[in-house]
Amino acid sequence: FQYLKRFDQGYNLDTFCYKARSVEGNPAECLQQFLLHCGIVDPSWSELRNFTWFLNVQLRDCEASVFCNPEFVQDTLQGF
């Protein structure tokens, strides 16, 4: 949710890193973001769950990768 919210607001996501147990927004706002970005017009709860699970795994792997660390790659992968 935090990544999607910042993406919609035009923030640079390269420098953002999720902090465990940090809470932003409310459940309705979170659900609205997921519905907006999941890519399905009328998703089931199962489809939303799969979308959020997949997105979470991908973002966790991205944060853990040295190749996605802006301090390591500096500006060599701008826009990647």
TrEMBL record:
The entry's keywords: Ligase
GO-annotated biological processes: negative regulation of non-canonical Wnt signaling pathway; sprouting angiogenesis; ubiquitin-dependent protein catabolic process
Superkingdom to which the source organism belongs: Eukaryota
An example molecular function term from Gene Ontology annotations: ligase activity
One GO CC term on file: cytosol
Protein name (Swiss-Prot/TrEMBL): RN213 ligase
Organism: Fregata magnificens
